[in-house]
Amino acid sequence: MLKSKKNLYKLIVVVILIVVIAFALVRCADEQENKEVLSQGSNNLEQSKGESPLQDNADKQNDSVISVEAKEVAQGTLATYVNIVGEARPYREVELVSKLSEIVDKVNIQVGDIVDKGDILVELNRDDQEITVKEKEGVLAATEADLQDALNGSRKEKILQCKADVESAKSDLEVAQNNYDRYKELYDQKYISKQTFEEYANKLTSSRSSYESKLQALKMAEDGSTVEEIKSLRAQVTQAEAGLSSAKLDLSRTSIKAPISGVISNLNIEIGEMTNTSSSILTISQLNKIKIKAYVSQRIVNKLKAGDSVVVYFSAIDDSFIAKIQSISPVADEIKKSFPVEIVVANPEQIIKAGMYAEIKLKTNQVADHLVVPQSAILEENGENYVYIVNNNKAKKLRVATGIASEDQIVILTGLQEGDQLIITGAEYLKDGSRINLVGQGDKQ
Prior knowledge:
Order of helices and strands: HEEEEEHHHHEEEEEEEEEEEEEE
Largest sheet: 6 strands, antiparallel, barrel
Structural class: alpha+beta
Helix content: 25-40%
Number of helices: 5
Radius of gyration: 53 Å
Number of domains: 4
């Protein structure tokens, strides 16, 4: 029984070994088959690559024909550009400062409000200014009345008053004269001091001056005003008018108005605060147009002029605009060592904000009515430029002189003629006289 079990175990082991060996053989066969398939696919891929019309002409230089593409040469216009950066600023910006030191009664705006020229933005207390205006009106009325009296001649009442003043002054003079005579006699007899005598002498002198002045006033009243007096009164009226105008101006300054149309970009005042004549209370920015400040090098500054059109791109809003150069400074900035340029762009919807950065494309040169060809067609040999053209199914090598160039095009000055079939693809595999196969015809310039 024990021997039978051992034989059974041996049989199981043998079967397992056979299965393992068989599995290994099958796997090896699959891997070999995969390698053959990959090898065949690679060969097929290499064969398919060789079927392009413009295949590797380096491998066909020993062949009789080389495939190329050509384009007809034509006249055109070519411009060169330079890119600079700048910053958007308000086209115009005004900081308002109060002309008066007064308490703020009303603030009619807030930051972001759009205002029109003449709108009342801030109102100050006006009590003091109204009082001053009334006072100045009274002064003017009085001086005008005096002038009118002088022009019309003295009134009868004034003459009577002058006569009464003369009689009163005459009476005072007589009293002063009598006192002087009496005290002089006492002084001569040494009964009074010199100081007491001089007091009465001075009173006599004063009374005499007053009497003479009253006589002169009466004479002027009876004779009428002189030319000089009327001239003086006119000057007083003018001065009073100026005082009233100044008072009215201060009154008007209690209403602070917008000097330009724009947007309130800054507000530094609140109701109840006292204005300061040296500090800004608000700022108005004009944003319907934007001014861009940029700098250009000395290499290109003379290639630009005011009025030139430029393309401005703002990455912040992902949009481009046509703008114009407004001014070019003839003096370089001392720090940047470049020339300031101001560019203006219309901004009717105000989507361009002050402070946004702009990429500016400036045209630095342009030629028209010249032969313009792709740069890829130009080859170089021994420091000279040359091209190939189609000539009776052969490549003809021509030396050319070139002008200005852009990223992908270049101007031909000499060497080509309008209508020539210029080889633009495959030229690097050619030599003068190579037989060619024209497989593509590019668009006309």
